[in-house]
Amino acid sequence: MSIQTSKELLAEIKKHMDIENIQVKDLAIRLNKSPQSVSQYFKNGNPSCNTLVDICNALGLQIEIKKNDITL
Fold it and tell me: What distance lies between CA 23 and its chain's CA centroid?
């Protein structure tokens, strides 16, 4: 899957959380943040890059960067 925006990335993270039955409050504990601040990440859809990495690390997810090869 190709993700183009931070909102799309957050949607995929939320999908993973739903599948693994991880609630926002559980993620907040892992991040040492309040549940309200973690909820805001998902609501606003514009967390910093560091925050996205922290969220992925807390959930055991990897971010992979691939080069798009365009053939004309």
Answer: 13
Question: pLDDT tens digits for the chain (72 residues)?
Answer: 678 888 899 999 999 999 999 999 999 999 999 999 999 999 998 899 999 999 999 999 998 888 777 766
Going by C-beta distance under 8 Å and a sequence separation of 6 or more, which residues neighbour residue 5?
Answer: 45
Domain ranges of the chain: 7-59
Name the token pair of 29.
């504990």
Question: Model's pTM, two decimal places?
Answer: 0.84
DSSP states of 14-43: HHHHHHTT--HHHHHHHHTS-HHHHHHHHH
